Amino acid sequence: MMNLSEAIRQVYKNVGNIENEGQLASYIPELANVDPESFGVFISTTDSCQFGVGNCDDKFSIQSIVKVLSLALAYKIKGGELWERVGVEPSGTAFNSLVQLESDNGIPRNPFINAGAIVVADVLLSNLANPRDEFLAFVRNISNNASIDYSPKIAKSEKAVGFRNVALCNFIKDLGNIKNNPCDVLDFYYDLCSIELTCKELSELFLFLANNGRKTADGEVILNTSQTKRINALMQTCGFYDESGQFTFKVGLPGKSGVGGGIIAIYPNKYSIAVWSPKLNSKGNSHKGMKFLEEFSTMAQSSIF
Amino acid sequence: MMNLSEAIRQVYKNVGNIENEGQLASYIPELANVDPESFGVFISTTDSCQFGVGNCDDKFSIQSIVKVLSLALAYKIKGGELWERVGVEPSGTAFNSLVQLESDNGIPRNPFINAGAIVVADVLLSNLANPRDEFLAFVRNISNNASIDYSPKIAKSEKAVGFRNVALCNFIKDLGNIKNNPCDVLDFYYDLCSIELTCKELSELFLFLANNGRKTADGEVILNTSQTKRINALMQTCGFYDESGQFTFKVGLPGKSGVGGGIIAIYPNKYSIAVWSPKLNSKGNSHKGMKFLEEFSTMAQSSIF
Amino acid sequence: MMNLSEAIRQVYKNVGNIENEGQLASYIPELANVDPESFGVFISTTDSCQFGVGNCDDKFSIQSIVKVLSLALAYKIKGGELWERVGVEPSGTAFNSLVQLESDNGIPRNPFINAGAIVVADVLLSNLANPRDEFLAFVRNISNNASIDYSPKIAKSEKAVGFRNVALCNFIKDLGNIKNNPCDVLDFYYDLCSIELTCKELSELFLFLANNGRKTADGEVILNTSQTKRINALMQTCGFYDESGQFTFKVGLPGKSGVGGGIIAIYPNKYSIAVWSPKLNSKGNSHKGMKFLEEFSTMAQSSIF
Amino acid sequence: MMNLSEAIRQVYKNVGNIENEGQLASYIPELANVDPESFGVFISTTDSCQFGVGNCDDKFSIQSIVKVLSLALAYKIKGGELWERVGVEPSGTAFNSLVQLESDNGIPRNPFINAGAIVVADVLLSNLANPRDEFLAFVRNISNNASIDYSPKIAKSEKAVGFRNVALCNFIKDLGNIKNNPCDVLDFYYDLCSIELTCKELSELFLFLANNGRKTADGEVILNTSQTKRINALMQTCGFYDESGQFTFKVGLPGKSGVGGGIIAIYPNKYSIAVWSPKLNSKGNSHKGMKFLEEFSTMAQSSIF
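Structure tokens for the assembled complex are given below, as produced in the milestone run.
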């Protein structure tokens, strides 16, 4: 851990000095109300060490990072059956997603593109009595953190401009792979994306994926080993949209980004690390976050490959 | 190793008993002249253990597996500059490859699709005085095996029906990313793909990728650590065409397949394992090979995730 | 006219005897409630002759045929400005429409694919005080037929299953080319498509397009000559979805089809002819209607080419 | 004719005064050696009138305009069977052509895109004893003009940079729709495209398409009426690449363009008109040629719609 915290400290300093390029996410109005200079990092290890720097205790909207958690719950509930509704292949480019949906009969290529996450939300809606509350309970339990909550303001802000998601959800409905009312599916989906966490909370929450699916606190099994490995594998191939290959190539860890500027990365059996800096590169991933993890992984010689 | 060899023995038996589905590669006539029941496995570990079963000493055409080696040599020669000529992203689907080439100005999505491997061959042609001989010397040195050679018969057989490769190479030439004469590039490319190896030889040859780029025999540095990790990362995201996500999801190791029915997989810092069974599934990957590695990775709990 | 009516009589008989292949439109439930054996033809000439056979006095849902009329009204109101919102090129294949929308920044390829007709509906909504009533008045005036009306039952039936249209409209909204609320646009669009006419009424209504834009009854100018020619030109290149080229090739007249099984075709300066038979071929055009017009155009040597 | 020649004279003057925008075709080096200010027009009517202005007696490379003639000969030889090898639908966009070839099993969308013209050349190669000579004889006979010839210099110039055509031809070969050796097909194809004509010769040569397939001189039947109408129909929907819809919309005549800057247009039963100005717009069609025909068709009220 000495090694890791020292590397974090040093890389944080290096990357803090580079130009803060990129743009705040503009498509969700509410996300623009954030300090663009924010930059935080937090690591939690499977042997119970923790270390953070910068704005690691500030809340931010985790957005698409939540797709890993909604997938985890849906996979836990449905097991292998889930993969009849959503694939496990990288999608190539954003560009392809609508075409691929048509040729793939409404089966999204993977659960981390919007189409796939919307189908996963539909699965949860069909299988939970009270989806909003039960999902929140699932997340709170994993992280022993009862304060985690949705942000109605963020959810509302996304819904107000969510024409593309309405398009996507209705297109999949037409292709037969949405079972509930598209409006209900999207309302739930916007809620999911609106969760706010600090880097510390995010790192703690995802630590079970570095720990073979078990909570470090009490050993409770959230997912079995095979399910955990497969979710990590999916983050490796599909976690960063069109930049998934780049992230794997340069960082060498499974991870997931969100347009709020957060990134989570997992080193199986070792740690989970959360980074947050809100300015996004042209692919929609945190500019400084990507830089940080690339340098960190090199300096700490911390890549699974 | 006990654990690994025992797992290999048992999974070999299990998978040997499943139906031998799939088809021999038909598009290269010469590849059809092979015993469809062949099935071999061989593992080599970084701590110098070896173990094989079945037809592990029979030669087969490694075909696309060679793309990892030609990439390794080109990366060694050109360093990071290489990535101006070829990308590191999964391609989504075979279907997209020509369209993507056009929108990406002739830069193939990654070095393991045919377009990318043809560009890599072009790079070698521009940078080696005697490409055929020097590439062979590179491969022979890595594996301390002077008997490795091209198969003129296989190369000729592929060339005779290689209309799609002629199309691809000339399309990239038109887009400006092939520097040599397309015919020369393809002749070299067909030679590369024609190399024949046994599972034992293949496993020995790829062991340096599990050993941070060094030969286990004498510690010679073939690639540096960063380059090695990045090639492994590329195999993880792009090694199995449209089934790359599936392989990562089910097997959880970086690997590469060829239409000769061979598959190589790497566990960094531990081992390289070669499997061969010539009947291919609908995605062009060895049917039994995929099954073997999936069961083996589960039984030996041997996934990097 | 002798020539035309005789040709109609004979071809009607010939085509009446061929197998009634194809399927009733199934995607709008209400459209399935129609006698599949219905088959009617009606011709109106610019020199005031009329002739009909078969079920030429039965009402049917004109569906997409209305897109010519909504385009006519929008073109009349906006003039050449309209073409900043919608293109005039054939779309190639249905398959491409969503991809093309993205690369074309939300400008549909032409006004006769759904995307284009939805944008035209949006234009009308922005430019008419009372769109539903004013459009109906426009149509009733052209044909001197005050009985023409919307079918609330058909509109409701289409709306209930219109997920793909919701997708399309919201996708264009996201791309910036829908100005009104997507729900309002679609409600108006469904109303437009629901109009019911007989072959006789349809033929009378479209006669102004064969008459340089003037009503034959009183010479009132609906569209000027240039606008009329251009709408006919658009029907020629884009009137039959993926079969537009086939229709031009085999029939050689500008025309437009609808999934209710109706087809209208125009011979400039001569006549308009309406055909109706509800079973559709695999491209969504009336099976018998296409056959009839092909044979009729050959027998009457009536092609503009 | 008075009307037509007067309109030509006046529009020639108007368009001669507009800015000579666009670029000379650059992809065939030899085509750049032409006076960019050249501008000629020639009309021939079915009742034996002729009229020309400007550079109407200068030779230019007709390039893709020849595709109408090679189609005419192939259609004459094979009849309706020809359409098993090539379609009659507009292709949407250049962008789509390779993807469409794959999904359409190597059947090009129409004979006027390069893919289609290459297949037509292949058909001629299979059905003529001496293709080069017999095609030339066919063309010379239609126009009673024994001086028409190939330009070896142009053919060689195109071949030297024809990587994309090599790609296309080999791709179709791989898909099974080229029967001869791809090199032979392309050599013949380059010869076809290299023919040089003046506006006068071009207009005379195409007059049979305005005359129901008969030569005006002696009434010899080149194509029957149905075949003639269908070729005209194909020019209407597919003659101008991505601008086919625009040309139909604005000019309202069947026509065909070439990258040499020539355009031919047909008014069935009336005339054929040839225009030449070598600077091309962004779609690859003559900038002034398009403008001329648009204004001419408006001024002479000469549109088939």
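The two ends of chain D are 20 Å apart (CA to CA). Chain D has one domain: 2-299. Further analysis is deferred to the final report.
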